[in-house]
Amino acid sequence: MDNSLNGKETTGTGEPATGFGPPGRPGPSASLLFADLPPLDGELRLGERAAAEAADDYGHLVHHRPLGVLCAGSASDIAAVLRLCADRGVRAAARGRGHSTYGQAQAEDGVVIDMGTLNGVRWERDGRVAVQGGACWSEVLRATLRHGRAPRVLTDYLELSVGGTLSAGGLGGASHRYGAQTDSVAELEVVTGTGHIEICSPTQRPGLFHAVLAGLGQCAVITRATLETVPVPPTVRRYVLRYSSPAALMRDQRRLVADGRFDYVEGQTQPDPEEEGGWRYLLEAVAMPLGGRPDDTALIGDLHDEREHAEIGDLPFPEFADRLAPSVAYLESTGEWRDPHPWLNLLLPDSAADDVVASVMAGLTPADIGPSGVVLLYPIRRELLRAPLLRAPEEPLLFLFALLKTATPGAEAPTADEALRHNRRLYELAREHGGFRYPVGSVPMEPEDWRAHFGDRWADLTAAKAEYDPASILAPGQRIFTG
Ligand SMILES: Cc1cc2nc3c(=O)[nH]c(=O)nc-3n(C[C@H](O)[C@H](O)[C@H](O)COP(=O)(O)OP(=O)(O)OC[C@H]3O[C@@H](n4cnc5c(N)ncnc54)[C@H](O)[C@@H]3O)c2cc1C
Question: Is 79 helix (H, G, I), strand (E, B) or coil?
Answer without folding.
Answer: helix
